């Protein structure tokens, strides 16, 4: 193919005041792109080393071969070195080639731009090829994005030609992908389990808050005996509060508890009272029944406490703290005043309205 010599005005964006081009870029198609060595050296340290390498014959022309990629991709690369811009159509057509060139010639800004552009154009058909290229070009963000894409659409990806080719020629990458998918599934299971546990701890924390609320001012059908029943207006957490009220009613009327045995619901009430005592910071002024007694008993049996119970108390306390931080400042202050009020001589029994 006959060489085509392009001047800098046609190959790159024209820059006023520049001298005549003093170096030429040779592409795979025989295309020659005229450029300025100072600009190339200023943007790319690899090109700088090539340009500064001594020439055997002074009369010989300065030629830098950039082979293995389409001519237009090299032209887009040189254009970026001049004006630091990459058009959308260039990224669409030559994004992978520009990623390789930016990696080879150490142009980090273009590499970041290509990483974003290529990741936005991932499909089930090309994700395996892009994954291999991301690994070779040391592009961790793109590599992780490809891995997540493969894991999310594995059934589709494993039917593509890229996956079959990888199985035949790069079994280690296949193993790496399968390992990532397995770890991703385990991570999702751990996340779901953690969310489920946090939800349980938050429900227990809400149950404790509702118990304190019922013992302090009452709610709909249950309240302290020394407080006049108010208009039964449901509170903000009525769904939880209603369940606690039903538990209190059962606890007060259960015949099995009266006989000294108790049932599973009574045991739940005992555990709720004990849990409240474990997280309560003001047992002397607390209106919840048996709070001080449970606190005193736990201090006596401190060394023999169950490790699982300690962990439960810690988790519920953490959930309670996180829940209080999510409230507006005014509500937090109101809750704090309600907890620390002077009610030391209050009775610790319930009234069923």
UniProtKB/TrEMBL annotation:
Annotated Polar residues bias: 339-353
UniProt-listed InterPro entries: BT1/2/3/4/5, BTB/POZ_dom, SKP1/BTB/POZ_sf, TAZ_dom_sf, Znf_TAZ
Keyword match GTP-binding: no
Segments for region (Disordered): 324-353
Domain of life: Eukaryota
Pathway: Protein modification; protein ubiquitination
SMART domains linked: BTB, ZnF_TAZ
UniProt xrefs under CDD domains: BACK
This protein's name: BTB domain-containing protein
Keywords, sorted A to Z: Metal-binding, Ubl conjugation pathway, Zinc, Zinc-finger
BTB domain sequence ranges: 21-90
Keyword Zinc recorded: yes
């Amino acid at each position: 193919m006959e060489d085509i010599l392009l001047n800098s005005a046609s190959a790159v964006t024209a820059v006023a005041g520049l001298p005549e081009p003093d170096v030429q870029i040779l592409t795979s198609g025989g295309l020659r792109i005229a450029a300025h060595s100072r600009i190339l050296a200023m943007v790319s340290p690899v090109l700088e080393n090539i340009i500064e390498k001594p020439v055997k014959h002074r009369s010989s022309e300065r030629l830098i071969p950039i082979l293995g990629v389409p001519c237009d991709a090299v032209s887009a690369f040189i254009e970026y070195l001049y004006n630091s811009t990459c058009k959308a159509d260039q990224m669409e057509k030559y994004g992978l080639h520009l990623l390789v060139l930016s990696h080879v010639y150490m142009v980090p800004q273009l590499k970041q731009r290509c990483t974003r552009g290529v990741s936005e154009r991932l499909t089930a058909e090309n994700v395996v090829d892009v994954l291999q290229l991301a690994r070779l070009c040391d592009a961790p963000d793109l590599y992780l994005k490809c891995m997540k894409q493969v894991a999310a659409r594995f059934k589709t990806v494993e039917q593509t030609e890229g996956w079959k080719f990888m199985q035949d020629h790069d079994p280690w990458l296949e193993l790496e992908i399968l390992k990532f998918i397995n770890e991703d599934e385990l991570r999702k299971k751990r996340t779901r389990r953690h969310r489920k546990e946090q939800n349980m701890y938050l429900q227990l924390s809400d149950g404790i808050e509702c118990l304190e609320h019922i013992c302090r001012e009452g709610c709909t059908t249950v309240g302290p005996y020394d407080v006049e029943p108010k208009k039964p207006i449901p509170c903000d957490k009525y769904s939880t509060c209603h369940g606690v009220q039903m538990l209190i009613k059962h606890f007060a009327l259960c015949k099995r508890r009266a006989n000294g045995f108790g049932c599973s619901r009574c045991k739940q009430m005992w555990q709720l009272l004990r849990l409240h005592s474990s997280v309560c910071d003001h047992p002397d002024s607390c209106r919840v029944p048996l709070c001080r007694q449970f606190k005193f008993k736990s201090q006596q049996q401190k060394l023999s406490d169950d490790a699982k119970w300690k962990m439960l108390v810690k988790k519920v306390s953490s959930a309670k703290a996180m829940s209080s931080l999510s409230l507006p400042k005014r509500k937090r202050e109101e809750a704090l005043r309600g907890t620390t009020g002077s009610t030391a001589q209050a009775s610790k029994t319930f009234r069923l309205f």
